[in-house]
Amino acid sequence: MDAETPAPPSAAKQIAGGLGVATLISMAGCDLVRDRVQQVTGRVHAEYAALPDTPSAREARHVLNRAAFGAKPGEVARVAQTGAKSWLEEQLADNLTEDPIVGWRVNPIDLQERVRSAPDTANDVDNDQLMAETMQAAILRATYSRHQLRETLADFWTNHFNIYALKSNERELVAIDTENVIRPHLFGKFRDLLLASAHSPAMLSYLDNQQNKKGVANENYARELLELHTLGVNSGYTQKDIQEVARCFTGWRLKTTGDIRYDVGGVLASVRDPHPGFYYDSSLHDEGAKFVPFLNLHLAPKAGERDADSVLERLVTHEATARFLARKLCRRYLGHVPPEIVDRAAKAYLKNDTDIRALLRPILLDGVFDPTRNRPIFKRPLDFMVSALRTVSADTDGGATLQKHLAAMGQPLYQWPMPDGFPEKAAAWTGSLLGRWNFALALTGRQIDGTNVDLEAGFKALGAKGDEGKIQTLVESLLNLPMNSSEARPVVATLREHLAKARQSNLPENTAIAEVAALTLASPAFQWR
Amino acid sequence: MNLKLTRRQVLTGAALAASGIGAGSRYSALANVTLGTKETAHSAKDALVILFLRGGADGLNMVAPYGDDNYYRLRPTLALARPNDKTASAASRALDLDGFFGLHPALAPLHSLYKEGKFTAVHGVGSDDRTRSHFEAMATMERGLGRQAGLASGWLARHLQLTAGAFELPLRAVAFADTLPDTMRGATTAVTLTSLTDYRLVAPTVLQGQPPLPDRAQALTESLKRMYGEASTTKETSTLDPYQLPMPLERVGRETLAAMTAIQRLDPAHYRPEHGAAYPATTLGSGFQQTACLLKGDVGMEVAFLEMRGSWDTHFAQGRETGLQARLLGDLAQSLAAFVKDLDRRMKHVTVLVMTEFGRRAYENYSLGTDHGRASCFLLLGEGVVGGKVHGDFPGLAQDKLEDGGDLRVTTDYRDILAEVLHKRVKNSRAGEVFPEYAPQFKGVVREV
Asked: H or E element: which one contains A150?
């Protein structure tokens, strides 16, 4: 399904069947108003609402932090009103009318058009442009899509099936991988996702499976397939399993016209081409009998292409895979791994034919909503950037200057060289604070080309008066924390002092406010999700 | 296992005991020195520069065992020509080291340093980790373990804890990387950066339609200091659980601010290499140049960590005297040579150690590359190295000598090298405690300072 095609209204109603009628009207009403304004102005429009100091607002904030890239203005109040569980069900149904901004800004991207209608021509695009446009689409969707859970999953699976775009000029392959492998399958059956990834030109190239020939097999893909994509490293398989699995994949190729050549000590080896596509070359396949002990998989001689099919099928339905995926998703959404949730999620996955939604439901519905099953999660730079863009309702094109900030924070998308994806470990990101502070300053100070922020709009909509009123509005609308909450108090004290001093030095009004807003986003409180 | 530590605890026994230091450790070469007290600040010791080649660098083509005929049998396409092979062009031959090993021709800049006794290699180095997984092998090695299970902190972090003085300078340990390497995980002072020049707060100077503003960086820095000076609101930290921050975020913020101030004083934008040193225009070259800048600036940097990521994983089209690996080696050798030239007499107090998580299969695969193997070689650079020979007990490449039928066996535990360098050059008298559960054996690869 095209991610940006709005669903017909009737479908949206059916999906949201569990919600009350009043709920539907109030939520749809808000989106309708926003859509109309956006259609008239062509700009991002925010519907501000005061932050309620209620338990349901706290819960809404938490759920939006975990299952979305943070809240947009007024969103905590709206979700609190309808109930965070209903919101999450809607997200799982993944069938809302999309925010038109997404279609307007993503569809016209040159590379998007090529991947949709003429993937063969993607390779004609300049390398830097390929990279920038692939990242641009990811940032825009994460920032503006109403399908927020979908976008967090896009980020999750993109890292799970990490491709390094700079390995050998395969930037255009990354764009194709994102659109044709990750996005169509991120809520579906894991089987389909894994099969798509295995046959993906980008993956065939990145982990050298296209170079895997009988004789002495290339083990690169087989190893990461077991270790990172399915079973997990401590599940008990051995080197023998890897070598046997590698034999199963011999003969997997990527269509090549040989335009890119590696110099191998005088021998030229051609790699791949402008018309990427998987094919199977039986003359390179190891037709001997095979035995993969860990999967208890005996393969008769001359099984050809079916060797790899059998391996992939055993892997997706293996309990170790179910548990590995469950643990990893628990870390993404809960910040740790409660054993009973892992059990439930893994069982549901196996019972429902590798269904990703079934795998997610216990983690989100039983996990996220239970405070005892959550630990603080330190935002990664992408989480931080997108949540900041959303909370200030930035009007952005997701372009090059913005992307430079993401790189400076340590997370240039598609540029993690190792197959494990950007680190999940919080400990890896302690060096990213300065980059975050500089992004916050540039964002609110309107120093980023193609990105605009209107802080006054929030003050106006919420009737903020005087310095104290403005500080309250910033804290409550950007952090979604009540002024007197323990997390907000240290921030508020600093903001008051900073603004008072700015007044003394006669700083222009918009500069003073921009600085105070930047400090709010730079605060410890905004680094957690 | 959610151990929460305060800064005070980290600096005292509680943290050391909790992280395994001092408790139940066994010592051998270090037995008689482990009771020593902390070094005084004035004792001569080396700054340590660690370079990690991520992806599993092929030691057999870095320091090639051309004297072993099996090398040519196992690598018909990839083996480097013997130094005296007149049928090969001069540029494609290995550079002789000791009559048995030869240096990859792209490492030529290190050949002269070898002859001067300032550069050497240790062959057959690795860990007990047999998974041949990058991530397991790196996690093992960066934490200073034998196999995966064990301490969560990095070995350099433990070294820094053990040698911490009363006042820790903000730039004591610097990692040139996008993300903090596991080697330093748990270090209470460790700065991660990619550019010294960019390590500053950039305050907007012009707002749309406004006249230029005075520089607001100072005022903003003050406010950040205040905001991050408050007590932590998030209590959850853990040096044992890498999915949690190792210390309160507020403390990370304060250390970031302190490092920023110290770096600005150095004026890194105007750094000029000396003595005709020419760093290659690569990430690694820039990393070594900035390491030199910090060392010459006398900012109290004791440890620098650099890394090259990814491309060493040469499953396919590895190349021989030219190609993928040769390009990486060229970058490595030119960066190291420039660093030595630039530092000149200061090299007296610097040791550089180049390490990798594992070596590669002894035989090449059918896609002109090599798959994951076991032992590799480590490189050592500095005036304190014991030069003139290649160290290590090379087990040979005969079929019956290979591990699991295809891999160079590990004959030197990597911790032997690390502990010896820490003890003799960095003067950590408690180096053995960095590697609990292990009894390091010194191999004589470096001299005492």
From this structure: helix A148-160
